[in-house]
Amino acid sequence: MKNKQTKIDSFDPNAPGDENSNLFGLPFTEEESEIIILPVPWEVTTSYGGGTSDGPSHIMQASKQVDLYHPDFPNLWKKGIYMQTPNADLIELNNEAKDWAADIIAAWESGENVAGDDERALLEKVNGACATMNDWVRDSVVSLRKAGKMVGLLGGDHSTPLGYYQAYASEGIDFGILHIDAHMDLRDAYEGFEFSHASIMFNALKLTQLKKLVQIGIRDFCLSEQHVVDSEKGRVEVFRSEALHMRLYCGTPWDNLCKEIVGHLPPKVHISFDIDGLEAMYCPNTGTPVPGGLSYEQILHLLRVFKDSGKQLLGFDLVEVASGQDDWNGNVGARLLYRLCSLLGEGR
User: Fold this and answer.
1) Packing angle between helix 55-63 and helix 328-347, nearest 10 degrees?
2) CA distances from 262 to 115, 257, 305 (A)
3) Contact indicator for 280, 289 with CB cutoff of 8 Å
4) What are phi and psi of 194, to 5 degrees?
5) What is the C-alpha separation between 334 and 344, in angstroms, rounded?
6) Distance from C-alpha of 241 to C-alpha of 254, rounded to nearest angstrom
7) pTM of the predicted model as reported, rounded to 2 decimal places
8) Strand locations in the chain, DSSP E?
9) Which residues contact 101 (CB under 8 A, 6 or more apart)?
10) Which residues of 245-271 are buried (b: 16+ CB within 10 A; e: fewer)?
C-alpha cells in the first residue's frame, strides 16, 4: 500500500497519458489495482464484420486520451485500473479456430451440405476451442475474485463472457444481467456453433443462478428468439429500442423508463454491454451494426439510475468494439469502459 500511495502522491492526473503506461495512463501494477480488466481477444464465430478481437488493443491505445476527472467520481483513478496482457495461447487458438469456423460459415452461406464427416469434425474442433476459451475465462475470473479484485471483461465478440457468468454460478451467486445490445443473442447454436456470439444469452439462461435477463436496445431478432423469451415466462424482459422511443415520443421521460428497466433487475447484477446497442454513429465498425439504438447520453443516464437504485454491480463485460480506419470505436469504447469501472468501483 505504501508503494501505491507514493504513486498516487506523485502522479499527475492532469498530464497526458504516458504511452508506456497501462490502461488510462495509470501507473499502478496489477497487484496495486482494485479493478482488473480481463482482455479476451476472441472472434471465432463472427459471421459478418470482423475486427472485434482487436478491441482490447484499440481501447488500450485510446484510453490514454481519456481525462481522469469527472465530478461524479473524482477519485476513481486512485483505486487503480489495470488491463492484463492478452493471453498468447488464447490468441493463437482464436486464429486457428477462426479459420476452421470460416470454412463452416462459407458452406452455410453457399447452401452446401454441412452435415458431412469433414464438416462435423471441423465443427467439433470449433466448439471445443470455444469451450476452452470459456473455461479459461471462468478460471481467470474466479481467481481474480478470490484475490479480492473487481473484474471487467473486455472482448472480443459477445461469446466471450459466458465463462464470467459461469464463475458466478460456481460461487453459488444468484444474479441478473442488464444486457445492452441491438440483438437478443438467444439463438440456439447459431450456424451449428454451440458457443456462438449470437447464442450468448441462450447459453447464459442455462444457468439456474441467472434469475433475470433484462434486455435493452433490442432491434434485430428472429422468431425463434421471441419463442425463447415467451417460454421463459417473465425471466427475460425485453425493452426494444423502437418501443422505448415510441414511449419517449409520446411523452414518457427517459428517467421514468430507466427506473422501469432497472426495477426489473434483482439485487445483484452483471452488465453485459455490446457496443452495437448504441446508435451506429458511435460504433460504425462493430461486427453487426443495426440502424436505431440508444444514444451515449441515454446510456450514461441509465447507468446513473442503476447506481442510485442501490443494486450491487458484480461485474461487467464490454464487447464487439471493432477496429476500423480511425480510432472512433476505440475512443467510444474507452470512455464507456471508464464509466463502467466507475460504477463497479463505487459499488465496492
Assistant:
1) 80
2) 44, 9, 7
3) yes
4) -60, -35
5) 15
6) 12
7) 0.95
8) 35-40, 81-83, 150-155, 175-180, 210-218, 236-240, 268-274, 312-319
9) 44, 45, 122, 126, 193
10) bebeeeeeebeebbeebbeebeebbbb
Nearest to 147 by CA among 3, 268, 39, 33: 33
> What string of pLDDT tens digits covers the 348 residues of the chain?
568 999 999 999 999 888 889 999 999 999 999 999 999 999 998 866 567 888 899 999 999 999 999 999 999 999 999 999 999 999 999 999 999 998 888 877 676 666 666 778 889 999 999 999 999 999 999 999 999 999 999 999 999 999 999 999 999 999 999 999 999 999 998 888 999 999 999 999 999 999 999 999 999 999 999 999 999 999 999 999 999 999 999 999 999 999 999 999 999 999 999 999 999 888 888 778 899 999 999 999 999 999 999 999 999 999 999 877 678 888 999 999 999 999 999 876
Side chain identity, residue 105: I
Beta pairing, strands 236-240 & 268-274 = unpaired
Strand pairing partners for 175? 210
Cell of 278: 448504441
Question: Rounded CA gap, 25 and 67, in Å?
Answer: 10
Domains of the chain plus CATH, in order, are 2-347 (3.40.800.10)
Q: Which grid coordinates belong to 314? A: 458484480
Label residue 146 exposed, middle or buried (CB < 10 Å: 0-12, 13-18, 19+).
exposed
**C-beta atoms surrounding 89 within 10 Å:** 10
CA distances 274 to 55, 298, 319, Å, are: 12, 15, 5
